[in-house]
Amino acid sequence: MRWQNPVRAVALAAVLGTAGTAGYAAPAPQPAAETPLAANGKVSVCGNTLCNDSGEPVQLRGMSTHGLQWYSQCVNDESLDALAQDWRADVLRISMYVQEGGYEEDPERFTALVNQYVEAATQRGMYAIIDWHMLDPGDPNFNLERARTFFAEVARTHRDKTNVLYEIANEPSGVEWPEIKGYAEEVIPVIREQDPDSVVLVGTRAWSSLGVSEGGSEQEVVDNPVNADNIMYTFHFYAASHGEEYLNTLSRAADKLPMFVTEFGTQEASGDGGDDFGSAQRYLDLMAEKNISWTNWNYSDDSRSGAVFKEGTCDSGPYTGTEPLKPAGAWVRERVQ
Ligand code: IDC
């Protein structure tokens, strides 16, 4: 977090004191007013970036969960305390798969789980991204009715919060941009009806590569943007697979479109294999320079190199420090901090 407004943060600290951190074993308690949420309030899109409620640019940095159907055991009070206080993350992306054993199997259970994690992020002063993790089939319209039901429900539940962002399509693939835009223009009004002023994040063509992975570029979005305000477009990259062309696309796009990187890894697109920290750092430098917010994939103890924790960590913790982390985890924790 860039502390654009220390004066306000200090004033709030005086008012709020340290209330709100009691009730669990905090590794490094901090006053509520020092949380990203207390300092920045409701965020919105201004120009091509995200701004706090004083209109100052902010860059949110944090982590995405793994699929909740597989790794919800890694998202618990202790691990979220570590994320908020040890990692000092601004934002938690709550990755709810639609297929592969996710939402479609049990909408009530997954909706409740998402709501629970939004509350947990809120209590810790973090922003929460509700990620509709569609992946296969790649046409978001396949899940349009489910998305309408889900987003009406979560937007109604969280409409009075100031920290929720809605990501309506994780990674479209095998589908043209106008189809994705059409989907967005169906789902965004459903959200706005309940929650008129929260940021909505729209996935882009070809696994949120702005079209690059299927031979396109950001131009298709620039020429034909989604007809809605207060939205951003997403870009995902995996540093060991996605080189120069992807980096340059993100760089150009960020000058013309509001961009949010809701997923990246330091390894290959499989989320596994060797880390390319050199390539990843170039992206991080670009995102710092252009004030692009990001969440890294992923906050779990899956065996793959991109899961930040060593296998078995989520059985009983601990989650703080570098001891439980794989190399990618130690690298990204430092950069979140
Ligand atoms: C991977 C998971 C893996 C799962 C696979 C298919 O790490 O356990 O079997 O998805 O669901 C993405 C996707 C994200 C992928 C990730 C790594 O959004 O779901 O996670 N990735 O492959 N896009 C590019 C990479």
UniProtKB/TrEMBL annotation:
Enzyme type, top EC level: hydrolase
Keyword Manganese set for record: no
Domain Glycoside hydrolase family, chain residue ranges per copy: 51-302
Gene3D superfamilies hit by this protein: Glycosidases
Alphabetized Pfam families for the sequence: Cellulase (PF00150)
Signal peptide: 1-24
InterPro entries: GH (IPR017853), Glyco_hydro_5 (IPR001547), Glyco_hydro_5_CS (IPR018087)
Keywords: Glycosidase, Hydrolase, Signal
Enzyme Commission number(s) from the entry: 3.2.1.4
Catalytic activity as recorded in UniProt: Endohydrolysis of (1->4)-beta-D-glucosidic linkages in cellulose, lichenin and cereal beta-D-glucans
Keyword Hydrolase: yes
Family (UniProt): Belongs to the glycosyl hydrolase 5 (cellulase A) family.
PANTHER family noted in UniProt: ENDO-BETA-1,4-GLUCANASE A (PTHR34142), GLYCOSIDE HYDROLASE FAMILY 5 DOMAIN-CONTAINING PROTEIN (PTHR34142:SF1)
Name used for this protein in its record: cellulase
Species for this entry: Saccharopolyspora taberi
